Amino acid sequence: MQHFDSDYMEGAHPRIMRRLLETNMEKTPGYGLDGYCEEAKAKIRRACGSPDAEVYFMVGGTQTNSTVIDALLRNYEGVIAADTGHISVHEAGAIESCGHKVLALPGRDGKIAADDAEHYIATFLKDGNREHMVAPGMVYISHPTEYGTLYTRSELEALSGVCRRYGIPLYLDGARLGYGLAAMGTDVTLETIAAACDAFYIGGTKVGALFGEAVVTRRGLIPHFFTIIKQHGALLAKGRLLGIQFDELFTDDLYTEISRHAIKMAEKLRVAFAERGYRFHIQSPTNQIFIILDNEKMAELAKNVSFSFWETADENHTVVRIATSWATREEDVDALIEML
Amino acid sequence: MQHFDSDYMEGAHPRIMRRLLETNMEKTPGYGLDGYCEEAKAKIRRACGSPDAEVYFMVGGTQTNSTVIDALLRNYEGVIAADTGHISVHEAGAIESCGHKVLALPGRDGKIAADDAEHYIATFLKDGNREHMVAPGMVYISHPTEYGTLYTRSELEALSGVCRRYGIPLYLDGARLGYGLAAMGTDVTLETIAAACDAFYIGGTKVGALFGEAVVTRRGLIPHFFTIIKQHGALLAKGRLLGIQFDELFTDDLYTEISRHAIKMAEKLRVAFAERGYRFHIQSPTNQIFIILDNEKMAELAKNVSFSFWETADENHTVVRIATSWATREEDVDALIEML
Amino acid sequence: MQHFDSDYMEGAHPRIMRRLLETNMEKTPGYGLDGYCEEAKAKIRRACGSPDAEVYFMVGGTQTNSTVIDALLRNYEGVIAADTGHISVHEAGAIESCGHKVLALPGRDGKIAADDAEHYIATFLKDGNREHMVAPGMVYISHPTEYGTLYTRSELEALSGVCRRYGIPLYLDGARLGYGLAAMGTDVTLETIAAACDAFYIGGTKVGALFGEAVVTRRGLIPHFFTIIKQHGALLAKGRLLGIQFDELFTDDLYTEISRHAIKMAEKLRVAFAERGYRFHIQSPTNQIFIILDNEKMAELAKNVSFSFWETADENHTVVRIATSWATREEDVDALIEML
Amino acid sequence: MQHFDSDYMEGAHPRIMRRLLETNMEKTPGYGLDGYCEEAKAKIRRACGSPDAEVYFMVGGTQTNSTVIDALLRNYEGVIAADTGHISVHEAGAIESCGHKVLALPGRDGKIAADDAEHYIATFLKDGNREHMVAPGMVYISHPTEYGTLYTRSELEALSGVCRRYGIPLYLDGARLGYGLAAMGTDVTLETIAAACDAFYIGGTKVGALFGEAVVTRRGLIPHFFTIIKQHGALLAKGRLLGIQFDELFTDDLYTEISRHAIKMAEKLRVAFAERGYRFHIQSPTNQIFIILDNEKMAELAKNVSFSFWETADENHTVVRIATSWATREEDVDALIEML
Questions:
Q1: Are residues C297 and C180 in the same domain?
Q2: Interface membership of C209 toward B (CB under 8 Å)
Q3: In chain B, N or C: fewer CB atoms in 10 Å?
Q4: Nearest beta carbon to residue D129 from set C78, C90, C134
Q5: Looking at the structure, do residues B306 and B246 belong to the same domain, yes or no?
């Protein structure tokens, strides 16, 4: 049985496991006040080309999104997001449970167009009833998106421009950031993102770590963030576990290297699918592949390979997702190709 | 200058003012524990044909919606509403500020079709990721809707059937309920609504009262609602003010009578608009009229009559709303017709 | 039967009722954007000696407290209050339902001593674990307190000094403010309060109005307060009802005059109680009188007069509260004295 | 330098690290739907003598407390806790941020006496104003408490009896549960706790795990808990990491064994402190020792050993906390004793 369900089926990259083991019996202060966290933050700042950025570590994506968004918004503000955005659909109402409305814009293959965001904000500002409405207080995007699509550098900069023009922060959910940065053809780098966004997070959980997301913000963006993190139940007691993992991920470019591997594996699969005439639901250059299968073929494949149900295409067809990751072995990719 | 901006521009019906004056120096216990509230509740139960219903009074619409909805939902649940619904757009995020997502369905002239609701719920229940999503925990509709449209009896019963099949309450926002019940051609009565809905409110603020909304629920639907109302800042100290007003509104059918007057005035206007070739944005049989004006005509009219901006139709045209009410004088209607 | 249960048993002062009646059929815009509200705000600013103050109207006390406090605090902050404060005990958790902790200090007859507040804040700031704790973000006091006690001018100024030293707002709940200002021996005026507090409210519900509280804040203290009020369900559609009432209360000093009457009535009762050897639970110079009754006497009195149970003193004695108000008739006071 | 600051300074017990390493490259479904979690749950049920119990895993203590408490309470309810309880003081207002009041009772060395809880609830139920107050909806205790004290079996059963009499759940925070169960002289076992409490958690973070808390509840106590956990940002993507750790902790009684070691180390220190005439701030039979040091001695010790500041005793004395753990080496204990 081959497993291509998702990019968080294994533990951590062996180098991370080794570091965790090596440091296991050291004694450090809790809550991220240790040297490993400091070191990891320094490396992340360097990788972002942002010597002034602030870096925080949290455990998971939903937690990170709701903590950052709740920290950035005032009570009367909401967050603009694509209607397909993770916070719009698949976080069980975490944003609303903090009191904030998700202002959903129709996504374009999972992305928000700068023009759409600007139009929404400008329309709001001209609405005679705007004081009875939720003010757009920030923009949330994911990169890669939930559909594996990527912003171009100019799209990102356009969105950033809109946000700055209206004085609201741009926040990027980078749960799969590594795979986006390693995708072929992208002109977006970590520096691009750090320059365009007021806050973003570098996903660890899906890119080599046991768990962990590194939030990067403009200096001073969120006063008292430590306490806010604690209040959200998002402060890890043994915070160094996050520091050690990100320290390793940002040593000798491991984060990039393992992301590239996942992309290479995905490319091999994409080519194989295309050659065999499979239809793609959406073109994604990342580690996610969305294919439309007829239901019989799907049932047959499912005997030997597991993947994610994505959505119903029509009565006889289904969209499924195949995901590679830092851990995908080429022999498993080849085995899957055999079955097609 | 004529004013047709909204249906809450005056104070209260003279009969209500007289009752408030007559009772002004009486001493009663606070918080709605007085005899006037009891009497009003009894009359409302009778009017609803629901001897077992529970009745509560609150001051305003947003307050009522957010208190009832927060009371009905568990934390992991959201409320289905039309995307044009008052709670979706014009309550400043009150529902989200209580922690709940508004699950917006594309409205059909402001209404939710039973099929759309059923499809949404059924799709949710079949979604493999539903445990990561906000569960639909109730349905919110308004009657009349924000566009002045009305459900038919069978539409209401179909929605009610869907809700019962899935075990979630149906709640109706009746901010302008009187005008809906008095509209020509409707087959919906207060009894229909009481039978179809688990909870609804009879709007007083826009239909003759100084302020006040009467919430009617199935017996036992919301335990500890008194405390929940208090927690939401929605418990009026001198609760009898609500009781007295609703007692009067439900004495000798005053609520119906004054609602009919508003409809009669609106009909007269509708006929006049139609005869003069004005285009309607939407057909509403209630006290609200939505007309498409060319911008020059709008500017000219605006010199002598005030109305509500509704939305931009195109570069040269605007949708405006003209509202009558229990207080609209026929001479003012005639004066407006003169100007057309 | 005589009723001395509370100070909100009647409707409104006859002058207010007359104004409501006179203006009843006028048409004005909603939500407090009318001329009466403007006029009332101007008069309140003048009475406060604060030409720059901002004034907002809400309907009731719990609503006002939770809306103001939620608007003033950031999510990681709590509000310091006396353990006997209204928000600490009798608002059904309204503050917590907005996400904020009430940081209860042991009250001194219902008051917070400046030293206690300073000690609390200073201790917090020195606590090595303070980042894991709720930061004191404002101070809430009531004047008169729930026990009918009053701050002196110097006590108020001392508290104000503490708040300014630590950069947090001081907010005063004036549900019964008129009765505090009219009390004998007080050196606190409306100007004193406006100078000492960053925000406070002038209670109308218990002092002559049908309902209504006027919030006064330093200019610019709460951006977007209109929307916040709406979100809290606290925006009255026919906002002019609040404007008209406060306009009348601040015309020819009506607010002061009717407050003085209540105090005069309370004084007469206090003297009568004292002369007859009744014991006072607490010395209050306001419209509230707290007496310790033996339970037999209480049962006997209760046949002819209603009052509030306050608390159990011991097995055989009970503390009860007798309240006068702007509406108390001297003949009823005399009748009560007869019974003692 | 010796470190006795806390019981979460190291990573995980070597047996846990080995299991994590062995299983690292296995592929499993996420979110705790894997076989390791199933196995761990079965072992925990057995250890609790509760074949019907439900078991859930979360990452940290504050997260667990706020998720469980928010799930158990209705909006109008609060949680009774000792004023020194972790949720009362050191969780940054996490409970309030979910909308609930912590109803703080004066603790008795960190514990709540059954009589105090009963008195609080009974007083509430008799209070004429109770509908304006926060209803006690559950009881929170910690065992060991924040002061290292322990409930006896009969104290626990008495509290449990009170809760059952009033129909509210009893919830126990077992962040350091292992150290409580291993303490000398205790008559409380895991079975006792499972029988007395409706919900509790077995702390892993401080007792051998990298992180993780296992929540045990009566079957059916919290419907839809998976979604609630997700909404709180508390659902770990690679849920098996929790399953593997707890599986190992409950294999061959590892949890008990390593807890006993911590207690043995603490006992050795306690005897040494006592013999040298040190004063104890509180008698704790667990892994925490609270000693009163004069400030000079403290400064001297601090050169070679780190410990926690607890509180100021008086001008010249300070209470400090010394904590042992599963990882404490006897040679370090001896080294500390040398310094005394």
A1: no
A2: no
A3: N
A4: C90
A5: no
Q: Which of B225, B253, B281 is the last residue of a domain?
A: B253
CATH value at residue B144 = 3.40.640.10
- Do D202 and D118 lie in one domain? The reply is yes
Number of domains in chain B: 2
How far apart, in whole angstroms, are the C-alpha atoms of residue B149 and residue B111? 7
Q: Which one, of B99, B77, B96, lies nearest residue B87 by Cα?
A: B96
Give the number of A-C residue pairs with CB atoms closer than 8 Å: 37
Both A227 and A132 in one domain: the answer is: yes
Q: D25: burial class by Cβ within 10 Å (0-12, 13-18, 19+)?
A: middle
What pLDDT digit, counting tens, does each position of C53-109 carry?
A: 999 999 999 999 999 999 999 999 999 999 999 999 999 999 999 999 999 999 999
Higher pLDDT, A221 or C309: A221
Contact B101 A100 (CB under 8 A): no
For the record, the structure tokens of B181 come out as 């019940």
> To which residue do tokens 């499912």 refer?
A302
CA distances from A75 to A78, A79, A251, B128, C69 (A): 8, 11, 40, 33, 12
Residues of D in contact with B230 (CB under 8 A): 131-132
Q: What are C105's two structure tokens?
A: 């200090």
Minimum distance, in Å, between the CA of residue A45 and any CA atom of chain B: 33
Q: Region of B283 please: left (phi>0), alpha (psi -120 to 50) or beta.
A: beta
Inter-chain touch C74–A224, beta carbons under 8 Å: yes
CA angle D261, D262, D265 (to 5 degrees): 90
Range of the domain at A100: 14-253
Chain A nearest C-alpha distance from B62 (Å): 10
Q: What per-residue string of b and e applies to A114-153 under the rule 16 or more CB within 10 Å gives b?
A: bebbbebbeebeeeeeebbbbbbbbbbbbbbbbbbbbbeb
Q: Which of A75, A96, A126 to mutate to test the interface with B (most CBs of B within 10 A)?
A: A96
In this structure, are A175 and A283 located in the same domain? no
Neighbours of D, requiring at least 3 CB pairs below 8 Å, are A, B, C
Q: Which residues pair with A212 in a beta bridge?
A: none
Q: How far apart are CA C183 and CA B340, in angstroms?
A: 61
The residues with which D152 forms a beta bridge, in sequence order, are none
CATH (domain of A321): 3.90.1150.10
Residues D119-143 have a mean pLDDT of: 96
Shared domain check, D224 and D267: no
Of chain B, the end-to-end C-alpha distance in Å amounts to: 14
Residues 6+ apart with CB under 8 A from D14: A24
Name the domain boundary from D253, D285, D300.
D253
- A184 plus A49 within the same structural domain: yes
- Asked if residue A30 lies in contact with residue A238, where contact means CB atoms within 8 angstroms, the answer is yes
What gap in Å lies between CA D160 and CA D154, rounded to an integer? Answer: 10
Q: Across the interface, do A11 and D29 touch by the CB < 8 Å criterion? A: no
CA distance D36 to chain C (A): 33
Identify the sign of the CA torsion C170, C173, C178, C179.
negative
* Cβ contact, residue pair D132, B230, below 8 Å: yes
Domain check: are B169 and B317 in the same one?
no
| B172 vs C204: CA distance, rounded Å | 33
- C-alpha B300/C-alpha B317 separation (Å) is 13
Interface predicted TM-score of the whole assembly (ipTM), two decimals: 0.97
The pTM of this model reads: 0.97
d(CA A113, CA A120): 11
For residues C42 and A311, the model is more confident at C42
CA distances from C14 to B58, C179, C239 (A): 24, 19, 20
**pLDDT tens-place string over residues B279-298:** 999 999 999 999 999 999 99
Helix (H) or strand (E) holding B82: strand B77-82
